[in-house]
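Lecture 7 notes: from sequence to structure.

We start with a single chain of 269 residues. Read the sequence below before looking at the structure.
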Amino acid sequence: MYIHVKNRFLFNKISYLVRFIIIFFCPLFTFNIFAEHTNILPTDTKKIESNNGNNMFIVTHEDKQTSYALGVSLGSYIKHSFDVQEKLGVLLNKEEFMSGMKDSISGSLKLSDQDISNRLNVLEKKLKQRELMLLKQNSYENSVKGEKYRAELIKKPGVKQTKTGLLYIINKVGTGNKPKCDDKVLVHYKGRLINGVEFDNSYTNKQPIWLSLHNVIPGWNEGIQYIGKGGQIELIVPPTLAYGILGAPGIPSNATLIFDIELLDIKSI
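Now the structure, written as tokens:
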């Protein structure tokens, strides 16, 4: 369900990566320390005595495969992060990245903690600036494409436009009273972009959805009131009546949205 989403937040890639590493690896380190002090070891790990009396452990084949799988998982995430940053025009040296990983594990860092913090802050600021630039560019392009799409659509028979800029096509009027702006409605619907990409579909779960009209986007609230129970309507919603410049998950900034709605029931509040 996306029609309830009101805001979109910029994704902080560096902070997310740091949180991922902390959350994922801290339990592993904690377990190792606990095991060392309590002699509780995995059943497939062998313990032997070294010449100087210190404990040594033989890593089994399963341990190696698990370690490799963990490395692949983390590496895949980091690769995705690199790819996203490259699209934003931020190119990082992968060899130096790997060198930093190795030095961190071995405890032999070439930079001070303050230097590392400063450089990460600069990178985070740069990523936010580039992402904002890209957002503005995409927002403008989507706005232009949407205006052109709606201007062509209004010329077609059966398409109506309201004072707010909402376009709609009534495929079936329905019967009985029409919903009011603060009613609850039971609906089936599909949502897509003007390029045909579908971002929401209640039919997928084969279960209609009850919605409070005071919680939905303005285009929905206005458009659903043109049909009665059993009615079907297609709404072409400009960004000013949808998610505007912020967009939503799966919905770009300033996107014109198309909804095919089937009104199944109405409940007055």
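The longest helix spans residues 113-153. Keep this in mind for problem set 3.
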